[in-house]
Amino acid sequence: MRTRWNLWDIYGVAWISVIAGFMLYYSTISLSEKELRAMLVSLLIFLIMILLLVTFIIFKRKRRLERAGARRIIKWCMIIYTCFIAFLFIPTPPYGDSGSCKMGTYGLKSEIEKTDASSQQGSESLIRVKESVKGNNVEYTVYDICMGKLKNTVKRDGKVSPIKIEIIDSRALTEQLKEEIRSFGIDDVGIAELKPEYVYSKDVNGRAVSLSHRYAIVMGKGVAHRLAGPAAPLPYQDSYSSLPEELAAYLSGLEFKTNSAIPDDIAKDIKETMEFFSEGGATAVQLAEHIRAMGYPARAHFNRWSEVQLVPLAILAGLGEVGKNGMIINSKFGPRGTFAVVTTDLPLLPDTPVDLGVKEFCAVCNKCSRTCPVQAIPYGGTIIKNGVEKWAVDSDKCWAHLSKNLKCMSCISSCPYNKQDYAVHRAAGFMIKRKNVVTNYLIAKLDDFLGYSSHLKDYSKL
What we know:
- This protein is α+β, with helices and mostly antiparallel strands.
- The chain is built from 14 helices and eight strands.
- Strand 7 and strand 8 form a beta hairpin.
């Protein structure tokens, strides 16, 4: 007698086939990511799905699933499975309307105390430069950064052209400017209004800051994934110590006698890491110069030369949300980014903050808290500090450890958002945006189960 396939049979086979195909695809992704455990787990699930599919077809052909009881089991299994998958897309209270895009920005109180940049952790170790310098080059070398010296001059501001270009369409200008900025290798760019509370009261040198520009152009660039973790090649040989001066000089192409033999691939990766920290600043300086040539004032802000607070401006410009580790989580490069800003009076169209569901996901993840060597990242909820909702990272503990362990990237490399740009990881980001507490919990636990960042120690168990 001919085997009859009903709707639920076809539906079940389709789901098993989809899962099997996805696991095969994910195993290839895991292989390219060099995540051995994830590859083995996905291959095992793929084989189980294939075995289940073959068994189902055999039982169907032998008519062992034609009984009313068997049909009922198949039907209800598929109904329950479908309802569970559909539930994962539904926001769950109170996560569905938590306003997470306000995280890390000012405005929760009427009175905001401005921040002094010179009082921040690590400001005493930053490089000092003369303000009256010529040229506008921004070039760092390994020697400059590691030894606290600056080889080239930096010009963040300058004379404005007396001939002002008339702006007819701010929207068209904004889009054109963004395209030009991306052509310089910047990964993400947005515009924010520059409010007084985002400007430091004093710079890192303790001098009063005078800045009355209307807008801030925020540019974000993500470091290559292979360079954003404890296994990254900086520093060389000893992963938890500063680079020796002669080694830094050698990598920077300076005249310095050394007996250290550096493999070419290691030297290339270290230089690429250093270039990452300079490219945003170089683009900001060039952009500010371009805007001044249009007849509008503009000043570049980046790294230690910033007179504005980058994190709240990046949030308002739609470049991401602040995570539990205190870093901006960007949809393109996760937490492994750096940001530069150009403040200006050029009439631009501001962007709006994005809601990626970061606050809700961080609330159930805690992976950066567990892997922080000095337990500087809190496990609990957010607090309100100076009109800002955020997690209270212990900056004293963090900086004390970081100043002696330059390669500590546990809060970046452990973050589930720190993934390469594959469709499967973009899909996870999409699911997190749904703000379902069960979905977030499953994704966080799955990240652990698949072995991502398994080389990091869980300090919460000590």
